[in-house]
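[job 4471] stage=fold_predict status=RUNNING
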Amino acid sequence: MAESNQLIDLVHSRIDEFLKTRQPIVTSISPDLTPLVDFSRQFLSGGKRFRALFCYWGWQSVGTSARGAGIGTSVPNEARLQPVISAAAALEIFHAAALVHDDIIDNSDTRRGAASAHKLFEGMHGGNSWAGSQIEFGRAAAILLGDLLLGWSDELLDEGLRLAPDSSAARAAREEFNRMRTEVTAGQYLDILEERAWLTQHESELFDRALRVIVFKSAKYSVQAPLVIGAALAGAGPEHLDALRAFGLPLGIAFQLRDDLLGVFGDASVTGKPSGDDLREGKRTVLIALARVSMPEAGRRELDALLGDSLLDSSQIALLQAAIIESGAVEQVEVLIASYVAEALGALEGSPISPEVTSRLMELAETVTRRTF
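[job 4471] inference complete, writing structure tokens
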């Protein structure tokens, strides 16, 4: 735990340091651009840093001969850590960019218990009595903020790769990052597609299509890709990378299945978003696919009529929550989570990953999939 906390502190410091170097570049263009840096700093100040942790433990899973001494060794050497710290920080900035864009797509007003980026920009517009629509300004400005963060994540990754002692390992890490970026964008498109195209799909296909969204929008980039990027940067071979992929994908699916439950039943004080937010946004998740199969026809029609209504009140949210629970879908998702976690842990057995790192990965698996409502 102490090692993970130390890693998180180093990632925080690296992000702060990076933003300090970018602030004069932005503000030298115009002081009107200061909010871009201020809001970036705000969105990068919180979060659980799961992606950074998986990146670090992927790197740490490779033999010390490849990566040198770092956290957890008898002779800590921060200089040796710089490549993985920069890569981990880059993943966190990429995550912030994805959240900014995701909140725009979902029309979500809050993020981590505070205003989402487009709402912050709307507030700027209203507070200064500017011309035109607050909403249009907020969305346009937040899109640009997300794009800026996306570019910055790339710059920070490159800084880390230039510090890597092995150029072939740096190229492999870059290839994994590029693949992750493509997959997340594809997964995001599939997500918005499912919210609109589900009516034209056969009922038997909805579960698999919802699972496909989980894999590409979340599972790969939340767990699998950070692990593999960290390990590739440390010079991991194919067998080692395959073991991490076999662990990371099912764990990433379990992570998102838990997140989907929180999106429907989560406590706002825990999740930072209003309870039932996924119901207002019309998310066609695995949970919803399973619920529809078990519901009576009348219940299914009511679910379909209400799901995606941004004006759902607390009583309607409670009605949908009760119907989903009654369908048995929550228990089914819990079974799936347990099954995917077991698959992930099973992939570590007989793998080239050391017992020490295996233990840390098992702890992380517990952390990311046992979050409470």
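[job 4471] summary: Residues 71 and 204 are 49 Å apart (CA to CA).
[job 4471] exit 0
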